[in-house]
Write a structure and sequence with these properties.
The complex is a heterodimer.
Chain A (H helix, E strand, L loop, with lengths): L10 E8 L3 E8 L22 H6 L2 H4 L11 H14 L1
Antiparallel strand pairs in A: 1-2
Chain B lengths: L5 E5 L8 E7 L4 E6 L4 E4 L3 E7 L8 H10 L10 H59 L1
Antiparallel strand pairs in B: 1-2, 1-5, 2-3, 3-4
Amino acid sequence: MPAGRYKSRSLRRVYTKLSGSKVVVHYKKRKPSKAVCIVCGDALKGVPRERPYKMQNMAKTKKRPSRPYGGVLCSKCMRAKLKEKVKNV
Amino acid sequence: MFEIGRLCLKIAGRDAGLKCVVIDKLDDNYVLIDGQTRRRKCNIKHLEPLDKVLKVKKGLGHDDVLKELKKQGIEVKEKVKRIKKAAPKTEEKSAVKKETSKKEEKSAAKPKKAVKKAEAKPKKTVVKKAKATVKAKAKKK
């Protein structure tokens, strides 16, 4: 039986295989929600879904696509925004 | 729409938001572009046509394209070449290092040989001595 603090589902369960065909349950904190486009609310591609301590060690180029508004807007909304900008000028 | 000389806005990829000129038409879907963007093949879907058409010949060179864009008031940032700046420093250093290393080699080479000789000589003598003792023992017997 798991210890009392592991019974609640606030921690996610990761099954890891050990040598000798042992399977052990590791309890880990849950991942944060997906990054979302500000305009349309769709999930952003190319933005990793990790806890802050992992994001800290990642390179900036791995955390968002390298285009204007990368990691803030989705590509469709970014295109619309750029077109708008040009037309208004 | 995307004839040669058409001023465009790139709306996809890392060059998005930069202006460019169509230099050549490669395909129904693809054109060659240059300007603020890199000089590259580009899908028409990734371009937004603007209202101007520049007088540009087919396959114009990069520098001439920049001149044409300057006339329209579109300036292009020149890339800072980091490699070239760093290169002369390393060359000087390496040249100095080479000189010093050569000197060191010359100075170091002579004593090494001397040391080797010094090391080699006593060994031989020891061997000789050992042989001599063996011979002497054999004679005694």
